[in-house]
UniProtKB/TrEMBL annotation:
The modification N6-(pyridoxal phosphate)lysine is found at residue 197. Residues 3-280 form the Aromatic amino acid beta-eliminating lyase/threonine aldolase domain. GO terms for molecular function: L-allo-threonine aldolase activity. This is L-allo-threonine aldolase (L-allo-TA) (L-allo-threonineacetaldehyde-lyase). Keywords: Lyase, Pyridoxal phosphate.
């Protein structure tokens, strides 16, 4: 089965499975799991941060950052299409007790003028801004230039505010921008990045920053139920992810750009340009729910799993387990589905 719904579907590599089976473990809540400690040290060094903390997921890491940075009843500024707003189940209001105030940022860039319109000091009627959140790579497939991040960081400094970076696909952004991950991370006070997704580990993310922040987050992680005891079994896969997988992400990007080029040649498809391992495109007939369902079912019969369109947009995601042969099969199915099977069914 070819699965291009997301890079979250990646199973662990054989090297990861062996490392997990042989991992040296302790009790991470006591701080004596040597494999977790090694992973956390490695993650901090890669990002040039003082410390990092192993957490179960990207959502957990983002919400832990908000919980650690933000006093209850304050306000967080972030892009309206970012993952924290769109795909984290409203957790900011439940866990950190904060209000989110989004900015229109369809390309993932938070522009200073828009930020200035929303930044607030505490007043009788208003909550004070306590944090600005950035996302890179953006969940819509774009890598945000570091110059745009610098503008946000400069403005945050003027207001005495910290900046948190949702770097779930940080290493994809680094590959696309031809930068080191630490260069992107330098623009934020805290950074979360996933070990799963393109890096292929089955579970886990890291939250990094200054040592004082990470120790405060460690306490809040306990409150959230994130003390995982013999977590070295999971951390072992994360170590392999950092050692083996970060350097090959350009292969996924190259296949995504090839897929874009070939899909663009199919009449009726409109591509949204991407930078990382994601291909976004619209196909107007799929605005009909019946046709959309028929398309996903057609692909499934070809042993290809895809998600249905979201607001009229399809997303195909390349990853470690999608090679050239799989791309060929995906294109053949796409040419039949979008070029023949369903292209005329929306006509009145």
């Amino acid at each position: 089965m070819i699965d291009i719904r997301s890079d979250t579907v990646t199973g662990p590599t054989e090297a990861m499975r062996k490392a997990m089976a042989n991992a040296e473990v302790g009790d991470d809540v006591y701080g004596d799991d040597p494999t977790v400690n090694r992973l956390e040290k490695m993650g901090a060094e890669i990002l040039d941060k003082e410390a990092s903390l192993f957490v179960p997921s990207g959502t957990f890491g983002n919400q832990l950052a908000l919980f650690t940075w933000c006093p209850r009843g304050t306000e967080v500024i972030l892009g309206e299409e970012c993952h924290i707003i769109q795909h984290e189940a409203g957790a900011a209001s439940v866990i950190a007790g904060v209000q989110t105030r989004p900015i229109s940022a369809p390309d993932g860039v938070l522009r200073p003028a828009a930020l200035l319109e929303r930044l607030r000091k505490a007043e009788l009627h208003y909550p004070a801004t306590s944090l600005i959140c950035l996302e890179n790579a953006h969940s819509l497939g774009r890598a945000v230039p570091v110059e745009a991040m610098d503008e946000v960081r400069d403005l945050a400094g003027q207001w005495g505010l910290p900046v948190h970076l949702d770097g779930a696909r940080l290493f994809n952004a680094a590959a696309a921008l031809k930068r080191e991950a630490r260069e992107i991370a330098a623009r934020a006070d805290s950074v979360m990045f996933c070990l799963s997704k393109g890096l292929c580990a089955p579970v886990g993310s890291l939250l990094a920053g200054k040592r004082e922040f990470v120790e405060a987050a460690r306490f809040k992680r306990k409150i959230m139920g994130g003390g995982m005891r013999q977590a070295g079994i999971l951390a072992a896969a994360g170590i392999i992810a950092l050692e083996d997988q970060a350097g090959r992400l350009r292969e996924d990007h190259g296949r995504a750009r090839f897929l874009e080029k070939e899909l663009a040649a199919i009449p009726g498809i409109t591509l949204s340009p991407g930078d990382i391992n994601m291909v976004y495109f619209s196909f107007p007939p799929a605005e009909d729910p019946k046709i959309a369902g028929g398309i996903t079912e057609f692909f499934l019969k070809q042993n290809i799993r895809i998600n249905g369109p979201e607001r009229g947009i399809f997303r195909f995601v390349t990853h470690h387990w999608i090679g050239d042969a799989e791309i060929k099969t995906i294109l053949e199915a796409s040419q039949e589905a979008f070029g023949e099977q369903f292209s005329k069914k929306a006509a009145p």
